[in-house]
Design goal:
By secondary structure, the protein is α+β, with helices and mostly antiparallel strands. It is built from 16 helices and 13 strands. The chain is globular and about 70 Å long.
Length: about 525
């Protein structure tokens, strides 16, 4: 597995030429380049810093070979950053870029280095007032996003960077060639998807947006799908240790497509094309020591979508699993906090912190970003629709459950989605699920939650993020902890080899054959 991951990220490039284009971007001779050093390895890019003799520096971001779509990902991020800066949003300035053949022998984007440190370095230690200060700046930035006038859903480009026959819709009021083109998110281009002859946008009809993501995955399943275990190994037990049939997922996608006409909200302002930073996290927010946001970074794969589909609390700030947060209650610490033991007190303080972030993000959104608030709260079925839309467009990796569960939610709450006809009657739901199947899906939902909890607990014990990622400094310790935990479990099962084999099959952080 290590060799495969390294091969995906191996990226030879011409160091001398990178220095030259960096110096040119700063209007300096290449002889002024003092150092070139790698400062980060991200999920999709390698980031290097070029420093000049006078102390000036520039960041060079080079996408790995695994990063898709080739050329379009860089082109879209460049155009997106330029549009954001033009609308008063603090993002890095792009000084130069290349998406084609060049002397560096790699795609690249050269950016100014934004001052500040990641919010993640202090986020969990902030006081209530300090968190409020940060959230206020985040919501203010998002209000600017929702105020932008965009003509369609898709991703943002300069027209010059798109192939001549690729569709585009120009952004009105601009004379710089900025336009909406095909979706640049990796789900559209992953693996064999990049070769599919499908509609990738842009779209100015919300039903076309809802349909296109599912049509994309249906086309891939019919061309390339084959039975496999889910990539989230902790779910294998929930599926009875059986490989999942892609045609079963295709059936769910077809059911979703039959529902599409009923999923668009009645309020047309809810599907205004909106650019959003959907995975905004403390890692990609830069701040000063006095908690002023200096930059929102990493807009790769950004998409414009109808407002109600992109609305919601960023995952890093939401706390929907907590009943207190779901009820929008003003968070309070327990009255008996001082009398609690150390463990209980830490748990209560963490619960309060999560509730505080969730509550004030929504409260500030309601006050400062009415368009987002209306898109988020204006339709009773919006939350289910957003989940189902994301599941329908997700890369199929052997999980047939989540979309099935979402479909069940629509069927159970059909009156929320169905519009009354002229005679006041409710149309029949186009998807029929028998009660016994409903119960099976509900049991499956509970089982998957247990798998999620198992992975979360494992991650916490190992000191890694839920997706298994870990800093270079903590990698060895995390591997040792994972090995100790696994060996301990297998020792307890030494007299039951069949169960031990099943444990290894479902172990979240165990290597497996990706072709399987």
């Amino acid at each position: 597995m290590d060799s495969l991951r390294l091969a995906e990220r191996r990226m030879p490039f011409n160091v001398s030429e990178l220095k030259r284009v960096a110096a040119k971007a700063l209007n300096k001779p290449v002889e002024d380049v003092k150092t070139l050093r790698k400062i980060a390895e991200g999920g999709f890019n390698r980031i290097l810093e070029v420093t000049m003799n006078d102390g000036a520096s520039i960041l060079a971001r080079l996408p790995y070979p695994l990063t898709v779509p080739r050329r379009l990902a860089v082109a879209s991020e460049v155009a997106t950053l330029d549009l954001l800066r033009a609308n008063g949003i603090c993002v890095p300035q792009v000084l130069a870029y290349s998406t084609g053949e060049n002397a560096v022998c790699a795609e690249y984007m050269l950016m100014e280095r934004t001052p500040g440190k990641p919010l993640s370095s202090v986020w969990v230690h902030l006081t209530d007032d300090e968190r409020f200060k940060i959230l206020h700046q985040i919501v203010t930035m998002e209000a600017k996003l929702f105020a932008m006038k965009l003509p369609a859903s898709g991703s943002i480009y300069y027209s010059r960077d798109l192939p001549p026959k690729m569709p585009r819709i120009y952004i009105p009021g601009l004379d710089n060639g900025l336009c909406i083109g095909p979706y640049a998110h990796s789900v559209w281009w992953y693996g064999e998807r990049k070769d599919l002859d499908i509609d990738r946008g842009p779209h100015n009809n919300p039903q076309h947006v809802l349909r296109s993501f599912a049509d994309k995955e249906l086309a891939w399943i019919h061309a390339h799908g084959r039975p496999r275990y889910p990539s989230d190994r902790e779910y294998i037990e929930s599926f009875g240790h059986k490989k999942q049939d892609p045609e079963e997922h295709a059936s769910s996608l077809e059911g979703y497509l039959r529902l599409v006409p009923y999923l668009v909200p009645a309020d047309p302002t809810s599907y205004t094309p909106t650019l959003r930073r959907p995975d905004l996290t403390p890692n990609n927010i830069l701040i000063t020591d006095n908690l002023i946001v200096t930059g929102f970074i990493d807009w790769q794969h950004a998409m414009v979508l109808p407002a109600w589909l992109t609305a919601g609390i960023p995952p890093a700030f939401e706390n929907h699993v907590d009943e207190g947060s779901r009820g929008l209650q003003i968070p309070k610490l327990p009255d008996d906090l001082q009398s609690m033991d150390k463990t209980a007190r830490a748990r209560a303080e963490e619960q309060y912190r999560r509730r505080h972030i969730h509550f004030w993000y929504l409260a500030l959104t309601r006050q400062l970003n009415e368009q987002h608030w209306r898109a988020y709260m204006g339709h009773d079925g919006a939350f289910i629709t957003r989940n189902m839309f994301l599941q329908a467009g997700m890369i199929w990796q052997g999980n047939n459950a989540h979309l099935q569960i979402d479909l069940s939610q629509v069927v159970r709450n059909w009156s929320v989605f169905a519009s009354s006809s002229a005679d006041g009657s409710i149309p029949t739901c186009p998807v029929v699920i028998e009660e016994q199947e409903m119960q099976r899906r509900e049991n499956l939902r509970i089982s998957l939650q247990e798998g999620d909890a198992f992975r979360t607990n494992m991650s916490e014990m190992m000191g890694v993020l839920p997706d298994g990622s870990v800093s270079h400094e903590n990698f060895r310790v995390a591997k040792e902890r994972e090995s100790m935990i696994r060996e301990g479990v297998l020792t307890k099962l030494k007299d039951d080899p069949l169960e031990a084999e099943r444990v290894l099959l479902t172990w979240p952080f165990h290597d497996f054959d990706e072709d399987e």
